[in-house]
Amino acid sequence: MNRLRDAEIKFLKGIGPQRATLLQKELGISSLRDMLYHFPTHYVDRSTVYRIRDFSGQEMPMVQVKGRFVSFTEQGEGAKRRLVGLFSDGTGLMEVVWFNRTARIREAYHTQTEYVLFGKPAWFNGRWSMNHPEIDSEQSATASQGMRGVYPLTAGLRQRAITSRSFAGWARDILGSPMAARMTDTLPPSLTARLGLMPLREALRAIHFPESAAQLDRARLRLKFEELFFLQLNINRFARTRKQALKGIPMPRIADWFNAFYFRCLPFELTGAQKRVVREIHADMKSGRQMNRLLQGDVGSGKTLVALLTMLIALDNGCQAALMAPTEILATQHFETISGMVAELGINVKLLTGSTPKAQREVIHSQLADGSLHIIVGTHALLEDPVKFRNLGVAVIDEQHRFGVAQRARLWGKNAATPPHVLVMTATPIPRTLAMTVYGDLDVSVIDELPPGRKPIVTQLRYDEQRFSVYQGIGRQLRQGRQVYIVYPLIAENEKLDLRSLEEGYEQIRETFRDYKVAFVHGRMKPAEKDWQMQLFASGQARILVATTVIEVGVNVPNATTMVIENAERFGLSQLHQLRGRVGRGGDQSYCILMTKQKIAKDTRKRLELMTQTTDGFLIAEADMKMRGPGDIEGTMQSGMPLDLKLANLATDGQIVQMARDAAVAVLDADPQLTSADGRMLLAELARLAPRAADWSRIS
Ligand code: ADP
Ligand code: MG
Fold it and tell me: What average pLDDT does the chain have?
């Protein structure tokens, strides 16, 4: 394989320096290996020949047709000049059209000779036509069996007469070369044999020239596996190194504080999922290694309680605990919840944010330093230098995506002797396969169950024309004493326009609901103003909140039962789900109204309809990923390798992700340092794929 990596494509038949430059520019193909890894995206069965009579519908696929040219004529003038061949297969006629290289075409093809044409028929001006098809003589077409690959092309390549068939030809030439005959596999034979995977050379041949659908499937499996396996090997190697390197404070004890809270103060039974997650967390904390765990749970699944129980374990082991939230208002809410819950236990809980007065701040600093402050809840203010702990045992971070890796690292430094355990909580559901790949270095716990008795939120899709009846609905909720969110998108690229429509919306709402106070928040406000407006709403003084997505993360106002989302088509599904989670937090029936204009694309309508059909965050996240690709899902890329997957798809290849992970774990279990012959081979391949992987152990 390495020789193929070093060999340049310009020496291939039909590729000179010019085409080589073009291929590099258009598709990033420069070596023979790159060329071999430019795979067909789909296939056409060579044994299936379409009849022109059977062509139908708006979107025809690529098809093969067998027949003869009846005539060739030059038509049109100037730029529209073209060569038109009339082609008959005995069942019907179609036009075959060429716009360039017409003289050469005219020379190469003749009437009365049988050809097999391959292309995409289109219905144009009352008849079927096919532009620039690929043409085989009847004999060469029947000589090749199986399926024919269709390669991705660009307009630039088409213009220079590079076709799908060109790629097939180059792949064939490379695969037939002596260099390919000596190609070494990237995976050790012991591994491919154990898993029943095709050897590399066979897989490459089969993906370009499959003899059957079954063979193609096996080839794809092998190549997808390879992509995912090295990704998993990389992540897991990193995770292991770090786990070994980082000792944690051993916390074996579950004692007085935990038990007192659990048996005396807990106002309800934990859900099964909460219990399981607490056990997973405790297993980490007593292991002697540092916990780095991601806790995922849908909005309202009860993460705060898990955070509190985690902190109580730290207290039972003689340590302090910290809970950090991304905004002042969230930190305040957490503080109120937690201090309320543990009030009767005599635990010292305090709040530290940017607006904590100086005198109080000093008390907090000194109590943290002497250990008499047990639990500190706060914002980024916790990271500041004067904040010193006597013995910080665990740090819980809420809504992880607002905090970068660097901030996590600063928290670690808050315990000079041994870094504290870290629990990161997020309500953004991450599909499992993505979590395994992107957050591979964090262990993941999932709360996949909501507390009993929640009424599912009713979600409705409404059009601007129905605004009046939507406002009537809002009015009814307000008269029942409820509160209402009205959310607008605010996206940087047309920020001015959005700001105007937000301000107009705000005016309109104030006009319509004159009897109620309306709070107003957007991303461009000063933080203090924002907090004040939020507080107006949280306290119930304001009954309506008009806002941009700044409310996406966090606030808890159980009395808010309705959310109207304007221009809902501009939000991603996961984002809509997050927003919707702000209602439905009390015992009353809640509503989420998605507003759009009447005319929206079919896909968009489908997306929004999914929201009206389910409230399952994981299902929504999976769908979001399938529709938009994993790139849109928030989170720092931590795998250290670009997620540039050619064949594998994290949304649909979950089983192969799992298989690759299991295989990588097994390899590392048997040979942690990759020092065996097989291990060295894998390490070498890894170094080629992720040259920077070696630096990883220094990243937090
Ligand atoms: P999250 O942070 O995951 O969105 P919270 O921790 O804010 O969710 O919990 C949402 C609500 O559910 C809170 O009012 C909390 O008291 C309540 N709750 C949590 N766990 C349970 C449980 N096991 N049974 C009943 N209610 C619960
Ligand atoms: Mg929460």
Answer: 86
Residue with tokens 């390919």: 180
> In degrees rounded to 5, what are phi and psi of residue 37?
-95, 10
At 236, the pLDDT band (50, 70, 90 cuts) reads confident
Asked whether 272 lines ligand 1 (CB < 6 A), one says no
3-state secondary structure 337-372: HHHHHCHHHCCCEEEECCCCCHHHHHHHHHHHHHCC
Name the burial class of residue 471, with classes exposed (0-12), middle (13-18) and buried (19+) by CB atoms within 10 angstroms of its CB: middle
**413 touches 392 (CB < 8 A):** no
CB 88 within 8 A of CB 120: no
In contact, 317 and 249? CB cutoff 8 Å: yes
Q: Using the predicted structure, report yes or no on whether residue 698 has a pLDDT greater than 60.
A: no
pLDDT score of 548: 83
User: What is the rounded distance in angstroms from the CA atom of residue 349 to the CA atom of residue 372?
Assistant: 10
SS3 call for 175: helix
- Mode of pairing for the β-strands spanning 115-119 and 63-75: antiparallel
pLDDT class of 696 with cuts at 50, 70, 90: very low
Pocket test for ligand 1, best of 294, 305, 309, 336 (most atoms within 8 A of CB): 305
**424 with 293: CB under 8 angstroms?**
yes
- DSSP per position, 61-113: --EEEEEEEEEEEEE-SGGG-EEEEEEE-SS-EEEEEESSSHHHHHHH--BTS
Instruction: Report the predicted TM-score, pTM, of the whole model to 2 decimal places.
Output: 0.64
Token pair recorded at residue 256: 């007085």
DSSP 205-235: HHHHS-SSHHHHHHHHHHHHHHHHHHHHHHH
Q: How many angstroms separate the alpha carbon of residue 585 from the centre of ligand 1?
A: 9
Q: Which of 295, 304, 455, 577 to mutate to test the pocket of ligand 1 (most atoms within 8 A of CB)?
A: 304
* Residue carrying structure tokens 């670009």: 642
Protein residue with its CA nearest to atom 13 in ligand 1: 302
Give one DSSP letter per residue of 288-301, joined into a string.
SB--EEEEEE-TTS
Q: Which ligand sits nearest to residue 338's alpha carbon?
A: 1
Q: How many Å is the Cα radius of gyration of the chain?
A: 31
Both tokens of residue 490?
A: 């605010």
